Amino acid sequence: MQGVFLDTDTLVPDELDFTAFDNMLSWTLHPQTRPDQRVARLDGAQVVVTNKVVLDAATLKACPSLKLICICATGTNNVDLAAAAAQGITVCNVTGYARASVAQHTMALLLSLAARLVPYHEDVRSGRWSQAPQFCLLDHPMTELAGKTFGVIGYGDLGREAARLAEAFGMTVQIAESFQAQGNQSGRVPMASLLPAADVISLHCPLTPQTDKLVDAAFLSQMKPGALLLNTARGGLIDEPALAEALRSGQLGGAGLDVLSSEPPPADHPLLADGIPNLLITPHNAWGTRESRQRVLEGVVENIRQWQAGSPINVVS
Question: Which of these CATH numbers, 3.30.1340.30, 3.40.50.720, 1.10.260.40, 3.40.720.10, describes 99-281?
Fold first, then answer.
């Protein structure tokens, strides 16, 4: 059976143990794959592994031999699930692998914003501390997390772990009502109640038609003045020009993002412009500790093994 991995570079394979993976199928491994290379590389393959390479309806239609798509991630927005289902292709993702890695990165963003670590570090490097008339610098207002409210939107595996860590800092956690559930949602609060109450809003929900640009100008205007926004989920959850304006105007106290709507972002991306205060962006690497990357690879191996045995797991289509 032929298998193709379209973007192994996303895992930095030299740092990982591929032994179990290598022994499963006859593999062709590609460090990266451009859109114009997808169909040729999948010709004759029954199994494809992709992290971020897009498999749209046209690509799938041109690859009739495909039987299994393994997404080397939790998010599924890079695969046309409806087209895969129509062709009888099983699609599996991996969940839980990045729990610790993403949650600690979420807290790192939050702590950096609350303590204003970046501007203070820049002050030290620029010599401002050396020139100060007293022992400390207090030019950038800081805030304590203890006693503040941490609002979670998306209370799956990652949202739960981020909430647990927030509680360890003495924060009160409020959980937004689910987008999917109907009727009474015990322990959840409506979005209209959460936004004006939370000192921090942390996004952990998937990108779907329902959540696309969830954080728009109206959403931001309802947030507590001076609140912080965190996004370690998907960049498309945020209307990025609206966020830039909310930061420039001072409506928000800051934003910590690990994702943008276009990755890698173009040089003229609205959130890469000069003059946006209290904005901290990391390059979609919250998930990327070595331990996390090894776990996601092991998850792919288990998905293939169970599919071969006729009992597929983690099926999303």
Answer: 3.40.50.720
